[in-house]
Amino acid sequence: MTSSPPGVSAALWNLPALPPPPGKHSNFDNPENRNDEIIIINAVFLTLMTAAVLMRFIIRRRGENRVGWDGLMCIVAVMGSVAHSVLEISNLKVGYGRHMWDIRGVTLTRESLLRMNQISTTYIIAVGFAKLSVLILYLRSFEVIRLTRILIWTAIVFNIAFSLAFLGVVIAQAVECMGLEALSNKFWTNTSKVTTAQAGVNVFLDFYILFIPLQQVYNLNIDRTRKLGVAAVFGVGSL
C-alpha cells in the first residue's frame, strides 16, 4: 500500500470515501474500475441517440416543417446527454468508475466533488427532458382522448416534480458534501440509497410512459397480430 505523503497521517490517508460493504476491502493502489465499459457504452449510445434524433427531425421536417415543443425538449435532452457523457469520461481520472471505498477520502477535493456532482445534474436534466419530449409528443398524438390526456399530464407533473426533487438533492450534496467533512455527512453517506431511489422512479416512469399508448393499442379495431406489431413498435421506441 502506498505510504502517506508528508503531513498526512496514515489513518487519514487510508480512509476511504465510503466504508466498504461487508466482505469487501478497500484497494487504493490497484482498484477495480469500469473505465472501458463506461467509454464503450457512452460511445455506442451517443451514436445511436444521434442517429435516432436526426431521423426524428428529418421526418418531422418533411411533414410539418417545424420543431415543436417536443422537439425543443428533445434538443435539451440531447445537449444534457452529450454533456453527461463528456463529464463521465473526463472524470475517470478523478475516480469515477471506481467503487467509493477504493477512493481515498483525502483525494476528493472540492473541484473533483463538484465535477462528479455535475454528472448527476446533467443526468437528471437529460432524462427529465427526454421523458418530457415523449410525453409532449403523446399530447399531440392523443389530444382528443380524455383518459389518455389525463395519463399524460399525470406523467408530466410527476416527471417534473421528481426531477426537481432530485436536483434539490444534488444541490444539497454540492453545498454540504465538500472536503473531509463530507465523509460523515448524511447526504454523502446515503448516496447509494439516493441513486437506487432515482433508478427505481425512472424505471417506473419508463413503464408508465410505455403503458400510455399501449392502452390505446388495445382498443384499436384490428386483429391481435397487428396489435402486437404496433405494441412492439412502441416497445422498441421505449428503449
UniProtKB/TrEMBL annotation:
It is a multi-pass membrane protein. Residues 55-238 form the Rhodopsin domain. Keywords: Membrane, Transmembrane, Transmembrane helix. It is found in: Membrane. The chain crosses the membrane at residues 38-59, 71-90, 120-139, 151-175, 195-214. GO terms for cellular component: membrane. The keyword DNA repair does not apply. The keyword Membrane applies. InterPro entries: Rhodopsin_dom_fungi (IPR049326), SAT4-like (IPR052337). Belongs to the SAT4 family. This is Rhodopsin domain-containing protein. It comes from Westerdykella ornata.
